[in-house]
Amino acid sequence: xxxxxFFLLFFTFCLKQVFGQVTEVSIRAKIDKTLTFYESKKDxxxxxxxxxxxxxxxxxxxxxxxxxxxxxxxxxxxxGKIDLAVKSYLTxxxxxxxxxxxxxxxQAIGDLVNVYIxxxxxxxAKPLLFKGVLEGQKEKANPRRLSTYYTNLGVIYRKExxxxxxxxxxxxxxxxxxxxKDSVGIANVYINLATLLIKQGKYAQAKLH
Length: 209
Hints:
- This protein is an all-alpha fold.
- It has 2 domains: 19-121, Serine Threonine Protein Phosphatase 5, Tetratricopeptide repeat (Alpha Horseshoe), CATH 1.25.40; 142-209, Alpha Horseshoe (Serine Threonine Protein Phosphatase 5, Tetratricopeptide repeat).
- The chain is built from 12 helices and no strands.
- The N and C termini lie far apart (79 Å).
């Protein structure tokens, strides 16, 4: 009986070691889970960010550790601390560029642009968008992300009443959307184009979009 009890205890201990073990896969799973959290779970985002950083550093995973800065950016943004959010995203951008983590680099650019546009800091958003477009083409950034950069440039130029520039960047976004067969994205760009043309009084062209 004692031998059986010892075996069960030992077996339970082994299971805990296997399933509770921190691995690259388990850290990536935490990253994916945290990406689904929104403002209502901002405190959980902070806790997960710290856990991901600690686990990743323990295993020497630089790329995964960088998500601490992205998630802290989310946390600060949801908490209304925009300056701290920007600081976190800039740290992510700097470290991602230094280590040539391209996906994380373009995530950081997108996060910064979103903050700047939502806070009406378009002059800070534009250089980042141009950086994303120019360097993203060379470094083969995610096409969806590139099309978003183009769309954002279109939005900014439309607000500035620079309609020719807005039209150009919307059409660049549309080309990418068509290439990757993103039907929802195509529809959204057409809406932006139609809105732009109506603003210019070009109603006949707007109907075509």
